[in-house]
Amino acid sequence: MNPNAARADGGNRVLQAGGVSMTLGWLGVLVTTAFYAASPPAAAMPHQPFNLGAALEGAAAGAATMTAASFAGMFSDIVLATGTLLVALELVHRGRGVAAAGWVAMFLSVGIFTLVDTLVGQVLVPLATTEGAAGAFAGFKYLFDALFLLGTIAFGAGALFALASDCRCEAPLVPRPLAWIGIAVGALGVAASLGCLVHLPLDLVVGASIGLGSVLFAIIGVTIAKGARA
């Protein structure tokens, strides 16, 4: 077999596996996002301004949905990280450095959100119902908020780099209409997260960007898998 043909076939198999994993992972993230949305924002989001009393009360009242978000998110993140890394590695092999850098940033974002999803149900909920643990809860809530915003910024910036590269590429991995939508969603997530970091009440916009990104990148995962199989 021609070495170039063998390499191309192997690369397509990598992309197909990556696309399928991404699709499954993002569908899981969409479910996770729904549980976050059903939870009290003061506890389950990087709510601004920070209110310890409201966060404690919200974590106790929203224990069921926050724990569900935690379990759905932790396992979905593992699947999603696998798919995202596979796509990044194949782009490295193809010499598309800017696009690969964007996908690596999104992979790092998933790693950050693995910690976020673990904290929300496995740490914040138990601390909220532990007597005398308000100080520990506050510390972990500040960490949760910071990681949530950092993860969203990494995802949004990664989407911007990866999809902008596709818009300029002759053989894009992602169709240009989807890429332009992804660029807009990524920019929204970055802007809202930066706003939250300076204490603007934009946490619901951050959550909306993640929900929109989940739907869009699930579609992108299907598109990548189909394109690699064709």
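[next item in queue]
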Amino acid sequence: MTNLCVSLTESTTEDMLSAMRSLPNHVDMVEFRIDYTPNPDVSALCRNKDRPIIVTNRPQREGGGFEGSEENRLSSLREAAEAGADFVDVELDSVSELGELAGQTRKIVSYHNFSETPANLENVYSRLADADPEVAKLAVMANDITDSIRVFDLLNAHRTELPLIALSMGEEGIATRILSGKFGAFLSFACLDEERSAAEGQVSFREMENLYRFSKIDANTEIYGVAADPVAHSMSPAIHNAAFAELGLNAVYLPLRVKQTRPFLDGYERLGLRGLSVTIPHKQSMVGLMDEVDELTERIGALNTINIRDGHRYGYNTDIAAALDSIERAAEHAGLAPLSDCTALVVGAGGAGRAIAYGLSPKVGRLVIANRTESRAENLAGELNAEWCGLDGMAEYEPDILINATSVGMHPRVEDSPVPREMLRPDMVVFDSVYNPIETRLLREAEQAGCTTAPGLEWFVNQGAAQLEIWTEREAPRKLMTEVVKRELGYGND
């Protein structure tokens, strides 16, 4: 079983102990980072432990906060052993100077690289193993998500040998923290909260358990995720992990910041990836990496869903049906029937824009594509026998239905809008694909102008539910998924 260890960085001994006692039982261990604590009472920390503890006094050269002499630093670790610490963490370049430890205290011998993931991690592991540790620890910076693949490979290669902690730091390495249990790591580190993180990329202990169900992850856990760049503010992990829990599935859904699609997909498929949500900017580039795609994906050249089964990759697009359902119901409410009498303007010619434009094309009387890069608007319009313009040309049209299929207005740039306010009229339908926030500036101004609005929340949940049903062949809990998004965004559930 992989332990969950919370790193504590409080500034006083009393605060360290108080923070430890506040932690729930599913936190198996704590690490006292005494390099963040001026004049720590090491003996008191060890005597008053309520679960196994690691005492760490990291020097500045290894990314820590300790500024004193090396002898004083190592002396504090010896003191911790004498007082009953379960583990002390000592750096690879210092372990020979530490000497033997008193009592039953075990040594974690650690290696850190805050700039990169070294080319040959096996050499680093061998050096750690040669230092005769009870536990080896390796923490390296992931500059690309593909760096984390080598860390997983290291864990896989040595899972039956020396107890090993192997983590990728940084946003691109978050998966190594969450999936430690799948690959047999000795422990994974978490923080109290984001403001008190001891290393870049640490996830709070609450998210580790409540969002990712860390304690239930094992060798058989199936991996899913959202491939995007950026990905930090995606709501997809919240809705899909809640749905997996509701359905009783041994699966976890991760935020995956992907820059290079092919090496990422090849590497993570080998590690057990079973499915992906795909969003900006990879909806089109992923199509060529599939073995088979559905008819809609083939027509529009953009996907948002990948299902991996029996060594084959299947691509789907669930955006279209979900978006059209929201748009058509809003149009019916606004009295815009039939759609064949309507003009629709789609802002954006990327993956979502292509999907919605292809879906609307056979239904509306007139279709206009607007895009910042005019050549992309022209190309998409040419495929659909539609009209096109740049963003500065939108005001020349008076659409009945206006669709924002860009990320403009998405958190954190919530005061941006892709559409001039003057374009909005009381008889229009305005659909915004952005769901974070639920009420974007565009939707707020559209409501003020008397338009009928279709928020991206419903579209987001429905396309996500369709993805879940493709992956699991189970009915998605749509009501729960909607409630989760609203909760995550700070809204009520009604």
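[queue empty]
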